[in-house]
Design goal:
Helix 3 links the parallel strand 2 and strand 3. This protein is of the alpha/beta class and about 180 residues long. Helix content is about 45%, strand content about 15%. The structure holds 4'-phosphopantetheine.
Length: about 180
């Protein structure tokens, strides 16, 4: 028998080839303050939903921040922004993110990173969350068109009469204009 026919003999026939195992469903969380939600946040949420079977967007509180929108308003704006994105739902988050993950069966935290200072901050948070509960964090690089957007900067632009409509949904733009009157 020559080398080629020996190879052919060792190949599995169709009935011996096992079907690929179905990937197990994995629920992920995209947490944030979302004050307000931007197109950069939405990009991360949509990309997370293309990777994981289910994504919960957790609208939380960072106790070191002052918010323009209260938690009900932020929740409503996030809910309207993600309406129609398959596999995504929105929840309010109180207390620790790791407790939220345990209570909701979340296996992975997904965060977006735009630049080095984001990375330094997210690295610290991911290591702390891992130390608290063993949960893993996946960092997604921000889409190149969203690298300079932050809620903080958009609030500053809007406060000073600038147009933030390219960076947020029409509902968010209207809510910001109404809030700043
Ligand atoms: O959009 P933000 O402000 O970066 O979101 C921060 C948020 C809300 C995700 C973070 O502050 C958080 O996880 N808060 C819940 C409380 C908590 O678990 N803090 C410890 C994180 S190391």
């Amino acid at each position: 028998m020559d080398a080629m026919s020996a190879d052919a003999d060792s190949r599995p026939t169709d009935h011996q080839t096992a079907p690929p195992a179905a990937p197990s469903p994995v629920r992920a969380v995209v947490p944030g303050s979302f004050d307000p939600i931007t197109r950069g946040h939405l990009d991360i949420i949509v990309r997370a939903a293309s990777i994981f079977s289910e994504v919960i967007v957790a609208v939380g509180q960072n106790t070191t921040k002052n918010y323009l929108f209260d938690s009900d308003e932020r929740l409503d704006l996030v809910t309207s922004a993600v309406a129609g994105v398959a596999g995504v739902r929105v929840e309010r988050m109180r207390g620790l993110l790791t407790d939220f993950c345990a209570a909701h069966g979340v296996a992975v935290i997904v965060k977006g990173v735009r630049f080095g200072s984001d990375f330094d901050y997210e690295l610290q948070m991911s290591q702390l969350n891992h130390a608290l509960s063993g949960i893993e964090t996946m960092l997604l690089p921000a889409g190149h068109e969203y690298g300079t957007i932050s809620s903080t900067m958009l609030r500053e632009v809007a406060h000073n009469g600038g147009d933030i409509s390219p960076f947020v949904t029409p509902e968010v733009n209207a809510a910001v204009l109404a809030k700043l009157g």
